[in-house]
Amino acid sequence: MPAPEPTPRPRVVGPLLVALMFLAVIGASVGFVLGTRDGGDSPDTSNSADISNDTGAGRHTDEPFTPSPLPSPSSTACPVHTQQQAGKELTQVLYVRTDRSEVWICVDADEALYYQGHSGQPGEELIDGTNAIFLTDVEPTQFGYRARNTSGASVTEYLVSSRELIIQTPNGTRSTEPAADS
What's the predicted TM-score (pTM) here? Predict the structure, then answer.
C-alpha cells in the first residue's frame, strides 16, 4: 500500500508577517501622535509641579537638574534691603506672595540670582534673622527656582515657583505654601 500523500498546508507565514508589520506601524504612529500632542517633550506644568529633585509624593522625582533660561527681568527693582545685601542693583525676576510669606527672586547685570524671603505682611521692614532671609545660592530649575541655606552640613531648601513656596528643612520636614490669589 502506498504512503498517503501529505495534505498541503496553507502558507500563512507571509500574510502573518505583513499583518504584524502593519500593526506595528499603526501602533508606532498612535504612540507618536499621543506623545507629541501636548507640544513635545515639555513637562506638564498645569498642576503644581516639582521644582526640585526631591519635593515629595505625587511629584516628579529623580529628574536631572535642567536649568531653564532666565526670564527677562521685569522693570521692577527688588527691595532696597535686598539690593543693599547684594551690594548692587537688582531686578525682580519673580515675586510670590503666600498667606504667610513673600519671596523675591532677583537678578543682577551678570545674571547672578538672589533669593529674598520675608515672613510676614507686605510692606513690613525686612530684618535678616528675624523676619527675612537673603540667599545667594540660587539656581533656576525646570519648574522655578531653588535656593539653599547651608549651615555646616545642614541645608534648608527653598523651592519657589509662581504657584508655591516649598520649604524643606534638614530633618526632612516640608511645608508648602500655595501662592495667594492676587
Answer: 0.61
